[in-house]
Design a protein that fits this description.
By secondary structure, this protein is an all-beta fold. The chain has no helices and 11 strands. Helices cover 0% and strands 52% of the residues.
Amino acid sequence: LLHVVESGGGSVQAGGSLRLSCAASGYTSRPYYMAWFRQSPGKEREGVADMYTGGGITYYADSVKGRFTIVLDKAKNTLYLQMHSLQPDDTAMYYCAASLSLSRRLSRAEYNYWGQGTQVTVSS
């Protein structure tokens, strides 16, 4: 079992930056996938970025490439989402998720350990 907890959300003006944190605990002794998803009111939850902790291979959604970066601190089992050049469209509840295995990157259905979410609000 894996347990993840997010932190670091808040409000920022367009063009600003924020960093979210996701701390994992439980069965972290073997490699696993960690991801960030987001959901805006009235929209489906969408994948933002994920990483395989075994090799550090990352994958980003097209909408955030070049603006968002995920970094893993293995010693702390913590995944960071560094967000730059934030826009009002980035406003959403951001969720951290984990999975012991995946057949497709950012597959929401395959991530079975979820955090409570942290709100990010970007004003124009």
